[in-house]
Automatic annotation (TrEMBL):
Its EC number is 1.8.4.8. The keyword Electron transport does not apply. Keywords: Iron, Iron-sulfur, Metal-binding, Oxidoreductase. Belongs to the PAPS reductase family. CysH subfamily. One of its GO terms (molecular function) is phosphoadenylyl-sulfate reductase (thioredoxin) activity. Residues 114-203 form the Phosphoadenosine phosphosulphate reductase domain. PANTHER family: 5'-ADENYLYLSULFATE REDUCTASE 1, CHLOROPLASTIC, 5'-ADENYLYLSULFATE REDUCTASE 3, CHLOROPLASTIC. It comes from Candidatus Hodgkinia cicadicola. Its cofactor is [4Fe-4S] cluster. It holds the Pfam family PAPS_reduct. This is Phosphoadenosine phosphosulfate reductase.
Length: 233
């Protein structure tokens, strides 16, 4: 039986008091069985938490065919450790062919770049996430766009509930949890890749830069444009 939750009422009352476990419990009640796992430290942390609860969920990974080797090998390693159900989504070849035929250049402008994100990420995700509740590791500190996110949100793009259990966590909380529990993470994180996307679109950052400024850096970074389109409202 699906327990329906009045999300707005819940948010009004206690959004700030919800901790990671209680949000994941709400997800469990609502048959939320999908974790969108980009292999960021945030997603890896939730992956680990979920693994401690039960095995009734699936980790969704998007393989855009442009990922770093380190990300691919970490994903493979995690399969061995936790033995969870893992589903990899790849873009359809006919769409990739279309990008190739028109010599698609992601560096020309934001629209060409978003077209690539759409084909390599969003189209496949839409098929998987439509009408199904899902979990994500986004945090408000990551960008201006994410500040309007909610811990529990009705996702109009996919017609489903979207849970962001660590939305209000800061980066130190995440790192402490990763270190204390000796969780594996991407090795390139140690050399300045604080937010890891596709290899042509991610660079390392310096200490004084915003954590997502390495993503689509040529788009004269501002905190509102550094998105692929999935977490925009
Ligand atoms: S991040 Fe870059 S390579 Fe990856 S899908 Fe978006 S534009 Fe394409």
């Amino acid at each position: 039986m699906i327990i329906k939750i009045d999300c707005n009422q819940l948010l009004r009352r206690s959004c700030k008091k919800l901790n990671l476990c209680s949000v994941l419990k709400i997800g469990e009640f609502n048959k939320c069985k999908l974790l969108l796992n980009s292999s960021s430290i945030e997603d890896l942390l939730i992956y680990w938490y979920l693994s401690k609860i039960n095995n009734n969920w699936t980790s969704i990974k998007i393989n855009t065919n442009k990922l770093f080797e380190e990300v691919l090998s970490l994903s493979g390693m995690r399969l061995g450790i936790f033995g969870q159900k893992n589903k990899v989504i790849s873009p359809k070849w006919c769409w990739l062919l279309r990008l190739m035929v028109c010599n698609h250049n992601i560096y020309i402008c934001i629209n060409t770049r978003l077209a690539c994100c759409n084909i390599r990420k969003l189209v496949g995700l839409k098929e998987i996430l439509s009408n199904k509740s899902w979990i994500t590791g986004v945090r408000v500190a990551q960008s201006e766009f994410r500040k309007v996110n909610k811990t529990i949100l009705w996702d109009t793009m996919h017609n489903s509930i979207k849970l962001s259990p660590i939305l209000l966590w800061n980066i130190n909380q995440i790192i402490n949890c990763i270190v204390c529990n000796q969780l594996s993470y991407n090795s390139i994180q140690n050399i300045g890749f604080s937010s890891i996307g596709c290899s042509p679109c991610t660079r390392s950052i310096k200490h004084n830069e915003h954590s997502r400024s390495g993503r689509w850096w040529w788009e004269s970074f501002n905190k509102t444009s550094s998105e692929c389109g999935l977490h925009r409202y």
